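DM from R.C. (forwarded with permission)

"hey, sorry to bug you on a friday — could you get me a structure for this? deadline for the figure draft is monday and I only need the backbone to look sensible"
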Amino acid sequence: MKKDLFGKALLDYLNNNYTEDLITSTNISGEDELPLPYLFRSYSEMPKLEQKALQLAKGTILDVGCGSGSHSLYLQEKGLNVKAIDISKGAVEVAKKRGIFNVEQKDILEETETFDTILLLMNGTGIFQEVSQVSKYLNHIKSLLKPGGQILIDSSDIEYMYQDDDGGLWIDTNANYYGELDYFLSYKGDEEDKMKWLYIDFERLQLACDVVGLQCEKVIDGEHFDFLARISVK
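My reply, with the result:
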């Protein structure tokens, strides 16, 4: 996010300059609005999948890709010790202004502290970018877990996006994994550089975890092909 349009949008909303929403699209889907108020949602406004993850969070917590800090704020208000990180400079500034005590602009691969719970929500597997990098990320995140620690991560099986009206699939079996997408973001007429983003089905995530010595269990299914998984060391 070289232009940090995501961070600019969050700052605009926080500073009462909300006039437009973020616009997202992918290489397989058209433009869609991402309402800025949704990024500042309270616990009661969150999907059940996110609520469940926050209920399961315990001990010292790392909130990866914290955005405006809604998840961290809820946990902090419960008295939990939370560190929030995001690669967006604007998001980190917003999270600080909203009252998160410990927040840094940082990529997860740069993190070195250890935690009891690591949260990767709002399609947390997206930051893995592509299937070939999943093991690298899982191995690093595994190194950040304290004994008995857990990773709470969500994703979606987007196979349904390749279905035609008759229920058939038009997935190219010679192409890359169908969950590897090019993700585009625009805000107030400006376009962010293209990003790689990964959606992964549960079975493939479970297999990837198994390869690096992690145990992966499904906690709950969401309302639209999404799921929450709990990952721990075997």
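R.C.: lifesaver. The chain has six helices and twelve strands.
me: no worries. The longest helix spans residues 5-14.
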